[in-house]
Design a protein that fits this description.
Length: about 350
């Protein structure tokens, strides 16, 4: 037989509190003394109370949902950091509503309005489409990851340090020329540090180098076609020379690795490759690929921890307005594998 549903009236009778006091416990616990909170909490255990989440949302407008917007899932980095954010449920208890924006600003605005209609308590934004100034105007806690974040809180990798690590490793492999392959990145985006770090390291050590910055595609097929074009260009421009490739991310590194391997039938001495992310594809590639580890699990956890602290402050009876934005940097870790041996 189904168990009898425990109501606020049942809890009130058990504790000798009023139903209003019980309601305050669920909707505004800080309005009660710690002692009374403990009494009610124990009553919930004794009565085996099953909370009605929908009723709670309707009562106080707090959904315990966080919205996430990612630009795509064809880059392995986004798929992995989304996986790591979702895994924080056990630690923080928040559920997630996820949208993939595909770099369309109007679609993304529509998604945000949809998320707000679901009474989300905060957002994690990984897409680059909408400016942080516009994001801040929505008036809810927001944490950006690896994107422009002048007006919102953020968690990023120290991209510049990662680029210095990658370039220095390639330099030590005695390559004749170093090449950094990346998209055209705006200077106010954290990933620009990969470009700047590469250039500065090459200039400092007088290393022969080249930057290849272009649209690298927006699907697996487009990425493959771009990498194939770049490979053919490198073969023509640098024949019989040892080329060290610093790729923008592990997806591009894996694609280039596959092209080179198929052309040579083995891993040739003419190439060295390092990626950026340390998403699972790097370690699982046909030849495990060196990369700069962003500590994706740590970034996801810190982003959620920061967002939860902002959301919790809003729930207080007298929340303190945030006077200074928080920007956290996670230290990258050099991961050496077979493509730089």
């Amino acid at each position: 037989m189904d168990k009898k549903k425990v109501t606020f009236e049942d809890i009130a009778k058990y504790t000798n509190f009023s139903k209003t006091t019980i309601s305050r416990y669920f909707n505004n616990p800080d309005s009660l003394t710690v002692e009374n909170q403990d009494i009610i909490a124990q009553a919930l255990i004794d009565l085996d109370y099953q909370e009605n989440k929908l009723a709670k949302v309707l009562a106080n407008g707090k959904s315990e949902f966080v919205g996430i917007i990612v630009p795509n899932l064809y880059l392995h980095y986004y798929a992995e950091i989304l996986n790591q954010i979702l895994a924080t449920y056990e630690a923080f208890g928040y559920k997630f509503l996820v949208f993939v924006s595909k770099n369309n600003i109007e679609t993304e605005r529509k998604y945000i309005q949809e998320l707000l209609a679901y009474k989300i308590e905060g957002m994690i934004i990984l897409s680059h489409t909408i400016s942080s100034k516009e994001l801040a105007s929505y008036g809810i806690p927001i944490v950006a990851i690896e994107r422009e974040a002048q007006y919102v809180n953020s968690v990023n990798t120290d991209n510049y340090m990662g680029a210095v690590q990658a370039t220095s490793l390639l330099f030590k492999t005695n390559c004749d020329v170093l090449i950094h392959i990346n998209s055209i990145v705006q200077q106010n985006v954290p990933a620009y540090g990969r470009i700047q770090g590469f250039k500065d390291t090459c200039m400092e050590h007088n290393i022969r180098h080249e930057l290849i910055l272009r649209d690298l595609g927006h699907s697996h097929q487009e990425i493959h076609n771009c990498m194939l074009e770049i490979y053919e260009y490198l073969e023509q421009k640098y024949p019989n020379q040892k080329k060290g490739l610093f790729m923008a991310n592990d997806t591009h590194a894996n694609n280039m690795l596959n092209i080179i391997f198929r052309k040579y039938g083995t891993w040739p001495d003419e190439y060295r490759i390092i990626g950026f992310d340390d998403s699972p594809i790097a370690g699982e590639a046909i030849i495990p690929t060196s990369t700069i580890g962003q500590q994706i699990d740590k970034m996801a956890y810190e982003a959620m921890e920061l967002l939860v602290s902002l959301m919790n402050e809003r729930k207080k009876r007298r929340p303190k307005p945030q006077t200074e934005l928080i920007h956290k940097n996670v230290t990258p870790i050099l991961v050496r594998r077979e493509t730089t041996d």
